Amino acid sequence: MLYEVGALCASLALFRLWLNRDKHPNVPHILPEVPLKDDGPYWIVKSYLEGHRRNLPLYSYPLLDTFFGFLKLNLHVINDPIKSKEIFTKSEAVGGHMEMYPWWYLVQEYRQRTKGRKAETMHRDHIGIVREHSRSDPQGTKIAKLCRRRLMELAAKKQFESKWVAKVDSQISWLVESLKKVGENGTKPIDTFTYTMPAAMTVVLDFALDIDLSKHTDYRDRICTYATKGLESVIRLDKYKLIFINIPTWLRAWIPLKYWPSWVPYMQGLYDDILDLQDMHNKNWSVGDEATSLLAILQTDHSQGKMYEWDVVILIQQLCMTGADTTALSLSGVLITLARFPEIQEKLFKILEAQDFRADEFKDCPYLHAVVYETYRYCPIIYRTLFHSITEKTEILGETFEKDELISFSIAGANMNEKYFKSPWKFQPERHLNENGDFQKSVYQQPFNTGKRSCPGQILADIELFHFTKNLMKHFKFELHKDSVIKPVVETEEGWLNIWSRDSANAPLHHFLQPKDRRILLVPREN
Ligand code: HEM
Hints:
alpha+beta; metal-binding; iron; 9 strands; globular; four-stranded mixed beta sheet; three-stranded antiparallel beta sheet; oxidoreductase; single chain; about 525 residues; binds protoporphyrin IX containing FE; CATH 1.10.630.10; heme binding
């Protein structure tokens, strides 16, 4: 008996050693400065800065190391923006989201077990835009790319641009009224995200469904909460989730539902709401009618056998989860940054005032466009790309990667590197203007990443940031409150690092980089 226990321990130890072997001894590791359980966006961004300081084109950091080393995950980070662009644009092997798929599997298995609405037509692989791009699944890849193309084509249609701008404009009066009321006319600091989030959700769902959610605020407010909780639970690597996703499906089927992670039953509500909205949309539209909303375009594709029923539903769900938090937090970032830099705010205000706040297109106010892009750079709330899982053995920057390994690009790292942006710790919108005063995008700045898996919503996001900022500037002056912990402005690395919360990834909204304080004063301009 003793002999068998000894043999078991020895084989476990050997297995652990084998698991922990360094697959990439040439790739430097940068370990977080805090224990992994306390690790959060601030510490990751700090490691990006270190990667750049050491001029490393590629490095790795541990995402997870638990169960005595039996569950260990490393992320490989590409630092060089030009190389990253080349890899994500050309490579056929970096198009997976392996780390996210099980989230959808769990939610769907639960729905099927509880016989939720339309569960009978669900299939675990019909997951819309996040489907894997890989040579081993040509049909799935084709559907993923079609979902992506449909979204991007609709957003980019020049004749529709004024429609998207009008959707932003339609949010302004309630947004202004709400901000004045809760901010007690500029005397009480407020977290604008609470209001920019429903505004951004209304725009994205109006874009997708042609339904104005400000007339259905119950749906709007619920979907906002689902979206934030959904995105947090997709991105976080908590142990309970990891245990669940690693249990084989046949075994999971025996686990009583009360032991499933709490977000799994909770997220069923988002599917139900989307199915309701789909019914609402289809009261005025049927296959064969002109398709102007994204949903109508996708349903037409489904009717022609180009995608499945749940690819359509799940793409709408994915827009809820990716299209509002990102835009709303970035917009709050613009307002906070303008509050920190009053001279720049004043300059922008004067430019806009001189043109009576008329700027229908980006070219009508290059300085505003530059302020938005300088905020994406200096205030990179979305501080890295999603993780991309490798779909087949491939070479990246001289290293051989195996299927299912993870890579990502350090958006915030490149943004703050002197090599790409002179005096990176200074907030200087002018760096995005050329000698004629026109807006010019830097090749080094990639807030949406580039290539086949880059953000398909970037056109809509830019429109929202530009027009929301313009409209809010007209009504408010943004100021830091007297106790703000992101004061004073110090334009050094230390001063920049001091803006950000050091909370772990488990803190609310810390799947993104968060300022220590999102509250500002919004002082009405009319007074
Ligand atoms: C300022 C706002 C936004 C920022 C900074 C942003 C940034 C990003 C980034 C960095 C990624 C990951 C790209 C990669 O890993 O290669 C991403 C993915 C994505 N974004 Fe955005 N995004 C924003 C707004 C939006 C909007 C408005 C939509 C929808 C209309 C959207 C839809 C998506 C989707 C569906 C994905 C996943 C794409 C895929 O996996 O293939 N995003 N976004």
